[in-house]
Amino acid sequence: MKMRIWLAAFIAGALMVSGCSLGPSTDESSSTLYRNSPLDYGMRVHFATFDTGDTEDFNLQNCAMTAGILNYNMDSASKAEGTLRDPRLGFWCEPGPYSATGAVPDQFESESPTDVRSKYRW
Predict the structure, then answer these.
(1) Closest Cα partner for 87 from 74, 100, 68, 73?
(2) Using an 8 Å Cβ cutoff, are 41 and 88 in contact?
(3) How many CA atoms lie within 13 A of 118 on its CB side?
(4) Domain limits of the chain?
(5) Considering only CA atoms, which of 47, 55, 44, 48 is closest in space to residue 99?
(6) Helix 56-81 with 2-19: angle, nearest 10 deg
(7) 29 in Cβ contact with 56 (< 8 Å)
(8) Has residue 1 got a pLDDT over 70?
(9) Which of 10, 43, 100, 111 is the most buried if burial means most Cβ atoms within 10 Å?
């Protein structure tokens, strides 16, 4: 089980390093990966920006794949600890550059790295 958690974290990290930047982008073809906070579930925290210079669809699909893997990693970590994951916490993507305004989703999609449905799956 620890190997799967480690593998999911490694894949998510590799995707983030290869397909995103560390700061907010102003490129409209970019996609932004957000997370919220256990201190304020409505808070939108910038996590990463996907702005490869490719198409908007490519950036959004890679962002969504990363969000699903990070949410799956949260599920796995909670399970390993014998607890339930707080369903109010998670990662999600939106097209375009970072925005401080907007709603936090009610639920967060979680996918195992081997079950990712993105058409850009490697």
Answers:
(1) 74
(2) yes
(3) 23
(4) 2-115
(5) 44
(6) 160
(7) yes
(8) no
(9) 111
